[in-house]
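Notebook B, p. 112. Complex prediction, attempt 2.
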Amino acid sequence: MRRKTRSQGTSAGGPATTTAAERDGSAPAGEGAESGRWSSKPEVDGARAAAPSLGLRGTLLFLWRQLTSMQTALVLLMLLAVAAIPGSLYPQRSVNPALTEQFLAENGRWGEFLDALGFFEVFSSPWFSAIYLLLFISLIGCIVPRVGVHLRQLRAKPPRTPSRLTRFTGYTRVELPAEQAEELIETARRSLRRSRYRTEVREEKGGSSVSAERGLLRETGNLLFHIALVGVLVCVAGGSLTSYRGQVTVIEGDGFANSLTQYDSFEAGAWFDETAMPDFRFTLEDFRASYVQPGEAGKVGEPRSFEADVQVSTPGQEDESRTVQVNKPLHVPGASMYLLGNGYAPEITVTDPEGTVVAEGPLITVPMGDTGYTSQVVLKAPDAQPEQTAVVGFFLPTGTIDEQGPRSLYPDALDPQLALTVYQGDLGLDSGVPQNAYEVDLTTLTPVAGEDGSPVLIRLYPGEEYEAADGTTVSFDGLRRYAAFDIAHNPFERWILISALTAVGGLILSLFVPRRRLWVRVREADGTTVLEVAGLARSDDPALEGDVKTLASRLTGAHDGNRPPDAASSGHPAADADGGHREGSAQ
Amino acid sequence: MINQQLAEISNLALVVTIVLYVLALIGFGADLASSSQRRSDARLAARDRAEARRVEQAATVGGGAPAGGAATALADAPSGGAGGDVAGEDAAEHGMTAQRFAFVIASAATALHLVGVLTRALATQRVPWANMYEFATTSTAIAMVAFLAFSVRRTELRALGTFVVGPVLLVLLLAQTFWIVPAAELTPSLQNSHWIYIHIGVAILSTSLSILGAVVATMQLLQAKHERVLAERAATEEFPEHWGRFGHVLDRLPSSASLESLSFRIHSVAFVCWTFTLIFGAIWAREAWGRFWGWDPKEVWTFIIWVIYAAYLHARATGGFRGSRAAGLALAGFVAVVFNYTIVNTVINGLHSYSGLG
């Protein structure tokens, strides 16, 4: 964004784009004054000088001007970049809560200190929010006056032709034999208009001039970019107030109906209306996974594909079979469903010593993150008699038990087995403290011992049953898979995308549309006609000089009568040489 | 299925490419050294001429001439330098100069580089940018193509060859030693999505442009410093010298203002590309993970890159920050790009863990 625009006209470009003004070593006085008006607000330095003599209102004005100055914006931008860094170096609660807790546990005091400063919630921390809010306030404070200025500019006529053109880019002066000055001006105006310049013909002493301007789209784009950024921020805020997101785990053969009680975890914005949740249900019919097999290219055991076949029913529509994959979410009106995880659910039956079945059916196990999908088994049987029972251990899709303990060698269920230990005692479920279903506190429990008195590690294959010394039995009846889905909806997503794309559109205009002025002046004196052409780049504009020269030679060429004006294309190799030659010979 | 034969051809091509880049680097280096030599010769000649003229003037006019003599000598110096260049180009017309050799070898290397990238793509039946190694080989290939395209007509830019081939070679060596992984199929998170073409394609383009932009911005900073010192010394010395041989190399490069303008053009395209990288990434993230933005480390660092480049563009339009300070910001942006590519990919754990390492 261009906040301070003074001297912009003379700052353009390197040697290729050096303006006449730069070569002379001084800015054209007229341009300086003009761009002062064009500038959206006074110099900060001016405000600083005036501050001491002003009261409260003056101080506020001073602060406001400081805030909306370009320097402040720059500092805020750099601060924003720096402030985001800890968000990538420290685990973030919103991204990975488990890792955050682990970090806190490992770092004691230092962790608490960082936590108090908000280093684990950087992007919602007061300091990060302060930076971006200030940045956006600064941006709005800068944009609003500029919109007004720009709107006036759009309606205004191109400014007066400067009295001396010699200092400007590509200045070309040609003396022609007495010509129809008006006709020349008219040709110039038409030619410029065809090239999409806004033109204004003005009568002057001894002749007339065309003042032309192009590239207001640059500023339009610039403003559009910044307004659209505000739009992005507003839509993101709107989204976080109204969106929801939840996680569900569904075992093969089971179903899910979209209601709050069915979610494992659920979070929603403050304005989220739970009654507006779309009514849909689905059944997970099959989950397939494939992995790199030994002998194939790639790391053995690395996943190749995950596919979940679901039968979806939405109100008013026929049931349909769909396959949800990574990158291929399921969209239903008002919600989208993403396949984000999977695992194994071995069917385990536990009977207590009295012969009562206290646990039965598929049990969701939690993969521990290794390639082999070694998964944690935690089964709680609070109703077991005489003592509450927990079965804890591992599910191994392709299992082995060696000196490293039970582990899985390959993620697919080639040789599925369970490695379990049975515990008995108080599960602590009555303490009132909410418990994680996938965790158990072993301190109040004792493992069931074998004949030698040491805890028994039970190894079970599908179809096998184990009976402990006290009569508790554990059996591995079968194996199913489960899939974990995220279900989410953000009503503002579309608007965020539209705003973002608008911003890029504006950005492209503001970076690549050259903004420039061009003047053609014709004066008649002593039987000759003097034609002057010059331009002023108001942005990086290496092509300006060439365009000015081309226009000059086209005008002189046209008035030779040799060539119609349209035929002289800008790329015409003879155009420049022609003009130069004529200029030389005329003098 | 992976075509192992093609994968091996790709590996071989890239190894040979590295060897060719080493040759090209030697050529470009030799060219810089010889330009420094030519420049010294030209300056000696100019000094002799100036000396002769001064003696002449002293003989004819008597006193008061030395100042005028110095002025003509100063005026001679640049034209002498230009003469040296012209001589160099004359030689290039007729024979093989170090620079021409380097340019030809670099072109051949780039062609082979592209062959390596394409055979990798054919071997795996997918885009060649699914892991760090492939991303590195592809983006350096694009940086080289861009450099060759820029300098095929603007021959003065070829003097920058050392500073482009050098970093490219460095990245390729890193890729070949640390990041190389066997050709393999895509992981599920990269499958079934056309965004892998768009998002990563644009990211590669952005990275390449950032590399080029950083090279130009660095040269701009050095050149600005060089020019400033030379201007200071020109007030007191007849033949200002600065940074010895490296100074002579800088004398041959475009002016700092011209480099600044080039740097700005590269960075403004890069900024647009980074913006698209963010937007397309957000769209893909929404399709793959169910949210368009999640402060994943890669997202955070791309955001940081974007913000720093935004600051650069603003600094360029702010009084007191133009020129060298703005170039400093552009380089800070490049540091973020490098960090995002190396540390974030290998050390920090996130959802964008596609390096294929570890």
